[in-house]
């Protein structure tokens, strides 16, 4: 795992070696950028952890897909809506573009939910969370299986953290055993149904909105 910032001639392998953790690598990129404020301003580089983490993630996916490596990606399980194809021709530009687009969608969801969890603000009223969850149960976009089947390793770790925090705070619905991952936005529904809309709306791109339209009366589209 590595990252290059060619504008400042920075290569993580020269600083961190070949096997840094994802968190260490992300923070190193932020530090390298922060040490070059002129380039930060010129190229509009982000210093926000979640945004940089998404960039690091996309860089890894590009490297892995271009080289035909799939071990970096979690097992898809062959389900519908899985963002990463494990076909033999992984270097194909169309597949690469699709994978990078999926990573953007994944991190948009992670960023929205992190923003709420880290804000300290309370969840939506339990009545609303239950109503949202009930809608998701009936929706064809409610993916099947454990969330770890759907994501690359760093994203899965971030979502695991979110769910652990909700468990610690005893935030849940009566439908938790029936809702999993939305195949439209790729968000973990157990977390999203509790999230105030003001944290969700800023990351709702036209592409994500379009991907949610095939759902059954999607509460996100109704509330937004």
* Fraction in beta strands: under 5%
Termini separation (Å)? Answer: 38 Å
How does the overall form come out from the CA principal axes? Answer: elongated
Q: On the 0-100 scale, what is the average pLDDT? A: 80
- Give the fraction of residues assigned to helices: 40-55%
Question: How would you characterize this protein structure?
Answer:
The chain is an all-alpha fold and 224 residues long. It has a domain at 122-223. 53% of the residues lie in helices and 2% in strands. The protein is built from 11 helices and 2 strands, in the order ββααααααααααα. Strands 1-2 form a two-stranded antiparallel ribbon. Strand 1 and strand 2 (10-11) form a beta hairpin. Helix 2 (22-34) crosses helix 4 (49-67), helix 4 (49-67) packs antiparallel against helix 5 (93-119) and helix 5 (93-119) packs parallel to helix 7 (153-168). The relative contact order is 0.12. The model is unreliable at 70-92 (pLDDT under 50).
């Amino acid at each position: 795992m590595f990252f290059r910032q060619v504008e400042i001639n920075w290569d993580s392998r020269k600083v961190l070696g070949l096997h840094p953790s994802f968190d260490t690598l992300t923070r190193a990129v932020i530090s390298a950028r922060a040490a070059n404020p002129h380039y930060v301003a010129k190229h509009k580089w982000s210093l926000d952890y979640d945004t940089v983490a998404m960039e690091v993630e996309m860089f890894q996916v590009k490297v892995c897909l271009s080289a035909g490596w799939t071990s970096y990606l979690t097992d898809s399980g062959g389900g519908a809506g899985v963002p990463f194809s494990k076909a033999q021709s992984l270097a194909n530009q169309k597949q690469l573009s699709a994978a990078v687009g999926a990573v953007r969608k994944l991190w948009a969801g992670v960023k929205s939910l992190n923003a709420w969890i880290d804000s300290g603000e309370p969840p939506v009223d339990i009545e609303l969370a239950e109503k949202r969850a009930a809608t998701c149960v009936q929706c064809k976009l409610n993916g099947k299986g454990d969330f770890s089947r759907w994501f690359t390793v760093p994203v899965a770790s971030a979502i695991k953290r979110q769910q652990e925090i909700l468990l610690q705070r005893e935030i849940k619905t009566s439908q938790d055993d029936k809702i999993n991952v939305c195949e439209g936005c790729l968000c973990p529904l157990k977390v999203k149904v509790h999230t105030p809309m003001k944290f969700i709306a800023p990351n709702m791109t036209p592409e994500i909105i379009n991907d949610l339209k095939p759902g059954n009366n999607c509460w996100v589209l109704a509330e937004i």
